[in-house]
Design a protein that fits this description.
- The structure is a single chain.
- With 383 residues, the protein is α/β, with parallel strands linked by helices.
- The protein folds into 2 domains: 136 residues, Aspartate Aminotransferase, domain 1 (Alpha-Beta Complex); 237 residues, Aspartate Aminotransferase, domain 2, CATH 3.40.640.
- The protein is 37% helix and 18% strand.
- The chain is built from 14 helices and 15 strands.
- The strands form 3 sheets. A 7-stranded mixed sheet has the order 4-10-9-8-7-5-6, sandwiched between helices.
- β2 and β3 form a beta hairpin.
- α4 runs parallel beside α11.
- The protein is globular.
- The mean pLDDT is 98.
- It binds pyridoxal-5'-phosphate (PLP).
- Pyridoxal-5'-phosphate binds next to α5.
- Pyridoxal-5'-phosphate (PLP) binds next to α5.
C-alpha cells in the first residue's frame, strides 16, 4: 500500500490541480467513520458532500453491488434493464414525478433538465438565484451564480438571469415570455446552507403557475432524507414540475436522475437526449440498495430527530465566534465570524471531518446513520 506521502506526491505530479485537498489519504469507511492510510479515524461530517446518507459501505449497498456486479455491469440504453425499471418506479413512488431520465452525476441531471425545459416550453431563458450552485458543465455553470466559477469559461448559454434568493418579487420581475424555467435549490447548499422563508417556494410556485413558467427544483444536495424529509420541497407544501437528484441517490455509487411530470416528460422523445452509462444496472442496483436501507432504518425520520439534537448542542456552545447555527435535518450550517478553514484543519487534527463554504460557514452534512454519541464528540471537538 502506498504511503500518505507517496500518494500526495503522485497527485501533485499526475492529477490536474483543480481541488484544494486536505492532506489525508482515506482508505476505508463504515457508517459515519472513515479511516486514513495511517489508521487514524475520523467522524465524517462531510459524507462525500451529502452523498453517503446511508453511511459508508452500507451492507445493503455493498450486497446489492456485489450481487449485480457478477451478473451484468453495463449494456446500453439500446436495451432494457430490470434494475432501471425498478429504480424509475421507486423514484416515481417517492416523488410527485411521473418519469425519469438517468445519468451519472448532478451536473448531468441539471443539463438534462435545462434541455427538457427548453423543449417542453419552446422558450430559452432561465431564471436562477444568486448564490445558486447547479454544477460545472457549461449549461449548469450558466445558472451557477459564483462569478469565479463562470468568468473564465464564458460565453456560457445565453438567457440566464440571476435574482436574489428568497425574493418573490425579483423572480416575478425577471420572468418574461422568453423564460422557459425557474430553477432553484429548495435549500441552498454551496452558498452556505441558506434556508428560504417558509412561504417562499409557495409564492414562487404561484408566480410560475400564473406565468406558465416551469419550476425546476434542484434536490441534488437536499434529496434522500438529508433535510428530514425524503425531499426538501416537502417542507413547503408545493410540488415542482421537474426535479434533479444525484449525490445520495446511489449510496455512494455515481448516479443522477432528472425527473418530470408526465405532460412535460412527454416532450423528450427518441433521440432528444442520451447517456451511455446512464441508468446502468450496477448504478441502479446500488441506488435500490441505498433506498431500501433508508426505508428499513427510517433514516429520514432519524435525520429530522438527530438534526434537531445536533443543532441544539451546537447552539448550546454559545461560542463567541459562532454567529448563527441554521439547518434542516442533518443539513447544518455553522456561520462564523472568523475564517472557517482554520476550524476545518483543527477539527481534522482532532478526528472530525467538516468542510467550509463561502469562507465562513462550516457545513455539517454527516451520514444519517451518525449516532448521538458521535454527534456529542463532534460538538465537543468543535467547541
Ligand atoms: C453537487 C451539486 C450539483 C452538482 O453535482 P455533481 O454530481 O457534482 O455534478 C448540482 N446541484 C447541487 C444543488 C449540488 O449540491
Amino acid at each position: 500500500m502506498m504511503s500518505e506521502k507517496d500518494v500526495i506526491k503522485r497527485y501533485a505530479r499526475y492529477v490536474m490541480q483543480t481541488y484544494a485537498r486536505q492532506p489525508i489519504v482515506l482508505k476505508e469507511g463504515k457508517g459515519a467513520v472513515v479511516k486514513d492510510v495511517n489508521g487514524r479515524e475520523y467522524i465524517d461530517c462531510v459524507a462525500g458532500i451529502a452523498v453517503n446518507n446511508v453511511g459508508h459501505c452500507h451492507p445493503k449497498v455493498v450486497s446489492a453491488i456485489k450481487e449485480q456486479v457478477g451478473q451484468l455491469i453495463h449494456t446500453s440504453n439500446l436495451y432494457y434493464s430490470g434494475m432501471q425499471a425498478q429504480l424509475a418506479e421507486k423514484i416515481a413512488e417517492l416523488t410527485p414525478m411521473d418519469s425519469v431520465f438517468f445519468c451519472n452525476s448532478g451536473t448531468e441531471a441539471v443539463e438534462a433538465a435545462l434541455k427538457l425545459a427548453r423543449k417542453a416550453s419552446s422558450k430559452e431563458g432561465f431564471v436562477a438565484a444568486e448564490g445558486s450552485f447547479h454544477g460545472r458543465t457549461l449549461g449548469a455553470l450558466s445558472i451557477t451564480y459564483k462569478e469565479r466559477y463562470r468568468k473564465p469559461f464564458e460565453p456560457l448559454i445565453p438567457g440566464a438571469k440571476f435574482v436574489p434568493y428568497n425574493d418573490v418579487d425579483a423572480i416575478q420581475d425577471a420572468i418574461t415570455n422568453e423564460t422557459a424555467a425557474v430553477i432553484l435549490e429548495p435549500i441552498q447548499g454551496e452558498s452556505g446552507v441558506c434556508i428560504p422563508s417558509d412561504d417562499y417556494l409557495r409564492a414562487v410556485r404561484d408566480v410560475c403557475d400564473d406565468t406558465g413558467t416551469l419550476l425546476i427544483l434542484d434536490e441534488i444536495q437536499t434529496g434522500f432524507g438529508r433535510t428530514g424529509k425524503w425531499f426538501a420541497f416537502e417542507h413547503y407544501g408545493i410540488e415542482p414540475d421537474m426535479m434533479t437528484m444525484a449525490k445520495a441517490l446511489g449510496g455512494g455509487f455515481p448516479i443522477g436522475a432528472m425527473c418530470a411530470k408526465e405532460d412535460i416528460a412527454k416532450n423528450f422523445q427518441i433521440g432528444d437526449h442520451a447517456s451511455t452509462f446512464g441508468g446502468n444496472p450496477l448504478a441502479c442496483a446500488a441506488a435500490l440498495g441505498a433506498i431500501s436501507a433508508m426505508e428499513e432504518e427510517k433514516l429520514v425520520e432519524r435525520a429530522k430527530k438527530l438534526g434537531t439534537y445536533f443543532m441544539q448542542k451546537l447552539r448550546d456552545l454559545r461560542h463567541e465566534y459562532i454567529t448563527e447555527i441554521r439547518g434542516k435535518g442533518l443539513m447544518i450550517g455553522m456561520e462564523l465570524s472568523i475564517d472557517g478553514n482554520i476550524i476545518v484543519d483543527m477539527a481534522r487534527e482532532k478526528g472530525v471531518l467538516i468542510n467550509c463554504i463561502s469562507d465562513n460557514v462550516i457545513r455539517i452534512v454527516p451520514p444519517l446513520v451518525i449516532t448521538g454519541r458521535q454527534i456529542d464528540k463532534v460538538v465537543e471537538v468543535l467547541g
